[in-house]
Each structure stands twice: as structure tokens, then as C-alpha cells.
Amino acid sequence: MRPEPLLKSLRDRNRHFRQRGEGREKPETAAPAQPLGRRSGTLPDERLPVILEVLPDEEYALLDSGGGRKLEQYGPYRIIRPEGQAIWQPAWGEAEWSRADAIFTGDVDEEGMGRWRFPRTPLGETWPMRYDGIAYLGRFTSFRHVGVFPEQASHWEHMRGLIEEARRPIKVLNLFGYTGLASLVAAQAGAQVTHVDASKKAIGWARENQEMAGLSDRPIRWIVEDAVKFAEREARRGNGYDIILLDPPAYGRGPKGEVWQLFEHLPGLIEICRAILSPKPLAVVLTAYSIRASFFSIHALMRDCFAGMGGRVESGELVIREKSAGRALSTSLFSRWVAR
Q: Does 113 have pLDDT greater than 90?
């Protein structure tokens, strides 16, 4: 499917939203068009289920979990956060958990660090961390996150291998890029990177991480924009990327109030991503958090979208292996198309 009819359908769809919403406070939806029909062509090979796991190391470890919480080590600090999937009981006793440096409470509406409690000594908003030689900042945020998703390390290593083995200039597009660790890994491996996030604050954090990592001279474009609108524009311009990373939220808003609903809008965005792949693409990697679905759903979507392109679709879960009892904590679903 060429981008032109897809984008025309997008404009028609958005016109419908504008007409339906006239006179209301609700913002216009920046919704990608839904596919115009199921693609013909041979489906890519498939590999599933694939379980990609992260093991404890000196920089990050899932120490213990249970009772709806998890105890993690981020560099020098022990941190306790809620974890709904930890329905089992902790393996370690209270003595180990009571050594936590920071606990996310979520019991106030304050921005920044106001929703964290520091039982041992007050801590600053950020602290230095490292991933495979790349320095970055951990950060206590008001929405429970700490500036990095360590389970994504499996994707970062896979991407690094693709870039280094290509032995040619590689362009990477990181949509919903957050604080930019994936972008830094790609840049360090030698790729030209375009990093897109709707949050100006997240882009600011990502730039800080670039400086912290000593990668300010690497070619990274930091763009504050709605991911869908940016991908549309790249399709109209005829720009292409060898690797595309997508880490969309279940629900979100763009910088101008655009609304994102994953189940409604993801199929159209995947189609646009196919349209902006280079003539010699390497991979499209999709991660999905906090959705009530099986990885079979996004696996089928990815296979249908990449029909006729060959390659293989691999799908499953990202998990973190616990240090205390060796249990696997599932964090997200993923599906990735790889050219070979």
C-alpha cells in the first residue's frame, strides 16, 4: 500500500473527527488511517513465543517482588515501586525491604518528586547510572517511572547488532522515544538517529542523557511532536529509515492535545511505518505496555502489515529475572519484524 491513499484516508478520517467535535472542548484526534484492506502477499515467517529476559547485573537488578510490589536496585539505590503482576509473596524478609532508599507512594498529586518517600536520607531528583558503558541519569518522576525501562535492554542489544553488522550507514527512527537510552545506544553503534516524543520535558531529559553519555557529537535529531503526525510527514516527504522503534502508550496526548488510543490507532501507525522504511530495511520493533491483550494480537497485526516483504516476525514478552527466587516478572509485550 503506497502512502498516498493511506494519507488521503487519514485526512478524510480526521475531517470526520473535526466535524463530530465542533463546539466541544475535546481535542482533535491525530489518528492514523486504518488500513484500506488486508494486504496480499506471503506472510513473513514467524517465531513465537519468544521470551526476552534481562538478568541482574551491577547496574540494575530486580532484587525481589511480591505482594503487589517490587524491590529494585538502580545503581547505588534500592527502590520500591508498585507492581500489579507480582501476585506471589516476597522471597526476602522485611529486613531486606526496609533497606530501601526510595519508595513510590503515589499518595499526593504533586509534580516531580512529591510522590516519593525517602526513608533513609533525602535524595536528589536525579542520580548517575550506566548501561553498557553509556552514562545517563536515573530520575524520580511523579508517575512512578525512573527514566529508564531496563527490560528494553534485549531490544537495544538486538538493534546494536543489526547496526554494526550492516556495515553501511543506518538510519534509526525512535517513536515515543522517552528519555532516549535506545537512541543513545543506536548512535553509539554508528547510526543516524531521529528521536520523536510528544513531551518537551522528556526530550529535555534525553538531551541531558546525551551530554551525560559524552555523545553530543553524534547525529541525533531530537523532535518534540506527535509521533503519528511526524510519521505522516515523513511519508509525504519520501524519507525512509532502516530501523523503526515504537514504544507507544496505551493512551496518550500529543503536544497539541492529539489523542492516542493504542487499540484504535496502532494498526494505522504500523502501516505508515511500513511506508517509511528504506529500500533495504532491517527491522521494526514494537513494544506494548499496560494493555489487556495477548502478544498474539500484535503478532497477527505485524505479520499482516509486513505481508509480501519476507523476513520474520518474532513476538512474545519482555521479562526481568528476579535475583531473590529466580521468578520472571513480565513487563510488556513485543513484536518485531526483522528482514533476516
A: no
Which run of H or E residues covers position 7? helix 3-20
Instruction: Give per-residue burial for 290-324: e unless 16+ CB within 10 Å, then b.
Output: ebeeebebbbbbbbbbbeebebebbbbbbbbebbb
The three-class DSSP label of residue 165 is helix
With contact defined as beta carbons under 8 Å apart, do 68 and 82 qualify?
yes
Residue 208 has a CB neighbour count (10 Å cut-off) of: 17
Q: What are the residues whose beta carbons fall under 8 Å from the beta carbon of 34, sequence distance 6 or more?
A: 9, 13, 267, 268
Antiparallel, parallel or unpaired: β 126-131 and 283-288: unpaired
* Fold type of domain 3-53+149-338: Rossmann fold (3.40.50)
Residue ranges per domain, the chain? 3-53+149-338, 58-139
**121-136 pLDDT, tens digit each:** 999 999 999 999 999 9
At the second CATH level, the architecture of 58-139 is: Sandwich (2.60)
Q: What digits encode the pLDDT tens for the residues 170-188?
A: 999 999 999 999 999 999 9
Calpha distance 26→221 (Å, rounded): 31
Helix (H, G, I), strand (E, B) or coil at 156: helix
User: Nearest Cα to 129, choosing from 205, 64, 218, 193?
Assistant: 205
